[in-house]
Amino acid sequence: MNNSNIVVTGAANGVGAELCKLLRSRGHRVTGLDIAEPKYDLDAFIRVDLSSESSIAAALEQLDGPIDGLCNVAGVPPRQGLETTILQVNFLGLRRFTYGLMDKLKEGASIVNLASRAGYGWREAVDQVKRLAAVRTAQELETFIRDENIDPARAYNLSKEAVILWTQAETEALLARGLRMNSVSPGAVATDILDDFSRAFGDKMARNVERAGRPGTPEEVAEVAAFLLSPASGWMKGVDIPLDGGMGAFNLSDALELSALRLS
């Protein structure tokens, strides 16, 4: 995979920054995109606001193919008053940007979407995800948020539910184009926005982190994303990888009373 041409959104900090640094250290050419310019070296940087259709279009014009991999990391945390931006950036803009890049992706390219453990309520939210996916205009999105009583926490969860389901929905169609798509769902990660999640999800998140022993690190998430971008993961298509330090296992064991399976 050396000398591959990789595009990473959300490159300014957190997981996106660590992924860009990791990929470049392995000999790849990395183009980073973000609303803010990174404070480290990249092969190329393009400014983009994923909540803006015109900004996405301008960014796409600046990207040259063929592209070997795309990692959609950019996201907005659950902050008060940002419901529209959260849904635009975390899913609708992500999807628009990815579709716009399709013709520049070379055969065999890998697409990796950063979802979240917060999206694991998708089974109960499929219909709402479908309604969100049908939104086409800013006015329609405002109406959707109002009619469905979407607060910041719900906006974030919904956006990640949509990313997980969209990844699966696209898999067969992408196979016909020689492309593949997977997602990664981290639990709590020690980045600058961890406090936003603490405020939004409160004691539940705190208990999960305590049981896991610590939050994850951006480097750990970046390693998994890099694996999914590489040919080594070539048979992985349409899957979501939980990366949560055991949080999902704890909660499933509690819910199903699986302690009875243990020897002691």
UniProtKB/TrEMBL annotation:
KW Oxidoreductase (keyword) present: yes
E.C. number(s) listed in UniProt: 1.1.1.194
Gene Ontology MF annotations: coniferyl-alcohol dehydrogenase activity
Keywords attached to this entry: Oxidoreductase
InterPro entries registered for this protein in UniProt: NAD(P)-bd_dom_sf, SDR_fam
Pfam families hit by this protein: adh_short, adh_short_C2
Superkingdom as given in the UniProt entry: Bacteria
Family annotation (PANTHER family): EG:BACR7A4.14 PROTEIN-RELATED (PTHR43975:SF2), ZGC:101858 (PTHR43975)
NCBIfam families: PRK12428.1
The name this protein goes by in its record: Coniferyl-alcohol dehydrogenase
Protein species of origin: Marinobacterium aestuariivivens
